[in-house]
UniProtKB/TrEMBL annotation:
<keyword id="KW-1133">Transmembrane helix</keyword>
<keyword id="KW-0812">Transmembrane</keyword>
<feature type="transmembrane region" description="Helical">
    <location>
        <begin position="60"/>
        <end position="82"/>
    </location>
</feature>
<protein>
    <submittedName>
        <fullName>Uncharacterized protein</fullName>
    </submittedName>
</protein>
<keyword id="KW-0472">Membrane</keyword>
<feature type="transmembrane region" description="Helical">
    <location>
        <begin position="35"/>
        <end position="54"/>
    </location>
</feature>
<feature type="transmembrane region" description="Helical">
    <location>
        <begin position="6"/>
        <end position="23"/>
    </location>
</feature>
Amino acid sequence: MIQSVFTIGAILTAVVVVISLFMANASTKESYKRYYPSIYLGIVGILLVLTGSVMERVDIMGAGLGGWGIAAIFASAIGFVVTSVMDAYKNAEPDA
């Protein structure tokens, strides 16, 4: 089960980072739209963890709902870090 959660987390991380990269290039400096995929995935992860603790055991691709929630929260956190670092480099003022 742990291996499937790590695999799901890695795949979700890659998807969130790619979507955030596209949204960062398409948005302006003042916009926070580039962070929306990570916010959405974090909320979904929290809901999955809460749902997994209340419902009976549900397996999806070898991981329960709690495992999917943990993988989504992990992907969201890594997505936030990568997006914020990329945003910092994109919006840096060049030294005059």
